[in-house]
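SEQUENCE-TO-STRUCTURE ENTRY
===========================
What this section holds: a protein sequence and its matching fold, both as plain text.
Tokens: labelled as protein backbone structure tokens, with as many entries as the chain has residues.
Question of interest: how does this chain fold, as expressed in backbone structure tokens?
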Amino acid sequence: MASVQVNPTRMELTRLKKKLGTAVKGHRLLKDKRDELMREFLELVKVDMELRKKVEAGIKAANSNFVLAKAGMSDEILRTSLMAPKQEASLIQGKKNVMSVDIPVFDFKMKSADENDIYSYGYAYTSGDLDDAVTSLADIFPDMLKLAEVEKSCQLMAAEIEKTRRRVNALEHVIIPETKEGIRYITMKLDENERSTQVRLMKVKSMMLEQAHHYKEKEK
């Protein structure tokens, strides 16, 4: 018996065969999509690991320089020096479609085109360690932005991979087997009905021949 209730008719059989063809094609396409998403995801993970190491090393260097600057400067001078940043960045967000997943693309534009125009203080009362700390943060800023872009892309692709995997499993373990079972059940029922019809026809034919034979004997 089929696991789902189906009407054993030829119209239903045709519908199920079309459904099976669509399900098999969809299953193949979704598997290809899942595999391609996995490939793209693993490449992004490698990029993410490299960027994270670079960013963490840059932040560690900046923190070390800030500690040295704080040791050689008073808290008041340090706070005053960093109170009004001179440089400013404008973030531009776009998107890129990868296997039907819209992943973010971040870009930025600096207020000043001069990359060295980042110091918002004079050099008379500040230490060189503060310059190194600010430079370290400025150098690592593009990588931090890229890291945010890659990590968000990884999150979106991981969610799409999971969604695609569930669809593939549903087709492979539920929809396709149930449809095949429905086709088998209807085919079996139709064959059984056809055999029953043939038996009835043969019996009717036999009865008609027998009646014709008796009729001829009566005429004699």
Helices lie at 10-72, 75-81, 128-219. The first helix runs from residue 10 to 72. The mean pLDDT is 83. DSSP finds three helices and two strands in the chain.
